[in-house]
Amino acid sequence: MILFKTIKYKNFLSTGNQYTEIDFTKNKTNLIVGTNGAGKSTVLDALTFSLFGKPFRKINKPQLVNSVNEKDCKVEVEFSVGNIEWKVVRGIKPAIFEIWRNGSVLDQSSAALDQQKWLEQNVLKMNFKSFTQIVILGSSTFVPFMQLSAAHRREVIEDLLDIKIFSSMNVVIKEKIRQSKDEIKVLDLKKQSLADKLKMQENFISELENRGKENIQKKNQLISTLDKEVEVFMRESAILEEGIFEKQKEVGEYVGAGDKLKKLGTLKGKISQKVSTITKEHKFFTENTVCPTCTQSIEETFRINRINDAQSKAKELQSGYKELEEAIKEEEDRERQFLTLSKEILKLTNDISQNNTKIAGCQRQIRDLEHEIQTITEQLENRNTEHEKLEEFKENLKTTYDELSSKKDTINYYDFSYSLLKDGGVKTKIIKKYLPLINQQVNRYLQMMDFYINFTLDEEFNETVQSPIHEDFSYASFSEGEKARINLALVFAWREVAKFKNSVHTNLILFDEVFDSSLDGFGTDEFLKIIRYVIKDANVFVISHKTGLEDKFETVHRFEKVKGFSHIVS
User: Fold this and answer.
1) Does the pLDDT of residue 351 top 60, yes or no?
2) Would you list the domain boundaries of the chain?
3) Distances from the Cα of 310 to the Cαs of 187, 273, 292, 320, in angstroms?
4) What mean pLDDT is predicted for residues 451-470?
5) What pTM, to 2 d.p., does this model score?
6) pLDDT band at 523, cuts 50/70/90?
7) Which of 109, 239, 323, 446 has its CA 20 to 30 A from that of 283?
């Protein structure tokens, strides 16, 4: 049970810088009166603001700060739950949200929204909507239970019966189902990957064991073929080298022909020059008897001797010239032979070079093949390691299958739990169990207010009305006064159920102008009898404009405005 003790507030709405304090436990029945705007309903706004961070009435949060002082707005509420004393302090300008437990403020490291959620779930055990159905019944922004949506009706009942934990569990399980499905997707991908690796490893081992020796044999055969090619090329090169040796011996016979040809050519030039000179001299003495230069006569004997001498030398030179030409021709033939042999030697040398290149290529291929043979041989020697890898893949795949099976079993359990925790599951069975008590208490309080109808709620919280004088009636069919009686009966019934269930039971009920307009005099009297004589364990506060009610309450709190600020004057 939540035992609300005191509330105090300052600079809140029309309240000034002095605290306004109300003791909730001093008297059982309390009347709050005052003129319009005096601050009567401020108590409700302060209470819900301190507990839930928002006022009871539709007021924007910045407007809660007193418009004159415009700062230091503060509300404190003290209550106990069992043996634990709680205090909640909330303020604006500066912003304050403190939760005190047994005189010590709790850690405020978490966000305000998380603190509020913790307060509602772990201390109050109800949210704003449930609180305004069970503790406060107002005329301004209060929405009666019968005017709430089906979802909000269920929310109130779940708080009342303390079964909201099932909804929270359902959210947790739903998240776990989502996480498990994501994990299953990952495991499926892992399973497929391992299956592929396993298949590849099996193929690799099969290739290694079944074709390894065959590959080695083929590569050895290829090496043998390459060796034979190398031998052929080497034999060809040896033959070519022999040809070169023979050609080099042969070419030795013609070495120097070029130099000798140059010398003979020079000699030929000199002889030609001499022949030309002798020819000119022979012509001169043959054609001239007088010197054309000095006009002296040339002695005939001298002239004939010179002519004979020139003719003799010319014959000599002509004979030598012919021999020289034969010698030149012979050397030219030797030079041509030398060049021919040199070309043949060069060609043979090129052929040897090409053979050497082919030999090198074959030897490179042989080395590569030998390396591949060595690799295959090592793999064959180490195939036990490959089998170990295969066994590791198999073990990992088995583990993954086991994990998948376990996750799928877990999802089945979660799905079963999820179906139990849905609105149509365990919660409905619990609600069914308490529906007779709820309906019994509602009709009990309706009869106390002289409203003789059989008002029942079903599992979906839809009403059925049975009465001799009301046929095919629903909540909406009643007058405002009759609706007010039903609303009051529901509030009183909620308290009885909460008391029985020991869930959200509190000592406090606040009524804000609930019978000022809707309840007639007779209904007001019956309501007052209920709060005075029937409700035994509650501190009831009634806010009203009606006159003549003061003597029916133990305490009267009168609110007035003094110099623009609200005060309690009595």
Assistant:
1) yes
2) 2-150+501-568, 194-389
3) 124, 14, 20, 15
4) 81
5) 0.53
6) low
7) 323
Q: At what angle do helices 164-252 and 300-381 cross, to 10 degrees?
A: 150
CA atoms 488, 493, 498, 500: torsion sign: positive
State the DSSP H helix or E strand holding residue 194, giving kind and residue range, or none if neither. Answer: helix 164-252
Strand, coil or helix: 91: strand
How far is CA 520 from each of CA 36, 482, 517, 532, rounded to the nearest angstrom?
Answer: 21, 10, 8, 18
Contacts of 399 (CB under 8 A, 6+ apart): none
- Asked if pLDDT for residue 504 goes beyond 60, the answer is yes
Q: Which CATH number does the domain 194-389 belong to among 1.10.287, 1.10.10, 3.50.70, 1.20.58?
A: 1.10.287
503's enclosing H/E stretch is none
Spatial contact of 183 and 406, defined as CB atoms under 8 Å apart: no
Could you tell me the fold of the domain covering 2-150+501-568? Answer: Rossmann fold (3.40.50)
pLDDT of residue 11: 95
Mean pLDDT of the region 347-364: 90
Show the tokens assigned to 164. Answer: 């909201």
What single DSSP character describes residue 296?
A: P
